[in-house]
Amino acid sequence: MDCRNLHLLTANGSPQHTNKVVPTERLDLQILTANYSSHRKPFHMVNPEGLHSYLIRLQSFGRCRARLDGKLELLEPGDLLLFKPGEPYELRIEAEQNQLGEKMVSSADYHIFLSGGWVDEWWEKYDRPQKIKVPLSEGIIGAFRQIMLEQRRISNPTPEIAEYYLRILCLDIDRNFLQQPLPTYPSYLAHRIKNYIEENAASPFKLEDAAAHVGISVSRAVHLFKETFGTSIIQYALEVRLNMARERITFSPLSLEHVAESSGFPNYNYFHKVFRKKFGMSPKQYRQTTRNHGI
């Protein structure tokens, strides 16, 4: 077991050494390769004998085709492939017709090949399909990018960072999988709207912005969201902003006015009103209460 000395600070701020040791966790998880690929020319890859490791591949731009359950299926942005060792794999990137009716080769993706006991356990938790839909959010895209950047470091004394990012990515994939047990197109649009709200709650946005993000009308966006989640877009945005503000009141030194502004509220008076209605006390009282109780 690896050990590390702990350095504590004395009352005057100088380091104090202690003989106490803590174990260093080693993750049974190997990232074999993590990359981003962009194709402007036809590409064909086939492995009929099956992969030797797990594969997580996210179509981020353009279109291509992959063999899923014996059939070549079209992949579009947001399509995430999950392959386990031993599964045959075929990928075809050819000219596809765009919205202008032109045929061109255009495809980009993030992909990670991985192995290890942790991913074995993660995989076995659910009966995983080879393809699921996920939002192209900064959370998921950011995790792919961070893993890729960490793997490219020439000198990296903390390789565990990439492994933790990968675990977060896998758990985020699970969350999207569980939230979309029936991968219908309307449900997928509703989840994309939900993701847009969560990513943009700190800034003012209109219903038109959320609807335009998924390319549908405002009335259809409002209906789909209500039907899928049982609440309105406006009410959900308010809940996200209030929870954001509550965390900042509790854990940050920001003034209450700054908390309101940075959490997406148009003015402090409105924030004060909705916060009191939600939590039963004013923002100031909430801050005092949480600090008095050491939360």
From TrEMBL:
Q: Gene3D superfamilies, alphabetically?
A: Homeodomain-like (1.10.10.60)
- Asked if the keyword DNA repair belongs to this entry, the reply reads no
Is Transport a UniProt keyword of this protein?
no
Keywords assigned by UniProt? DNA-binding, Transcription, Transcription regulation
Q: Which SMART domains match?
A: HTH_ARAC
PROSITE patterns linked: HTH_ARAC_FAMILY_2
Annotated HTH araC/xylS-type domain residues: 191-289
What is one Pfam family matched by this protein? Answer: HTH_18
Instruction: Give GO MF terms, alphabetically.
Output: DNA-binding transcription factor activity; sequence-specific DNA binding
Q: What is this protein called?
A: AraC family transcriptional regulator
In its UniProt entry, the species of origin is given as: Paenibacillus lutimineralis
For this protein's source organism, the top of the classification is: Bacteria, Bacillati, Bacillota, Bacilli, Bacillales
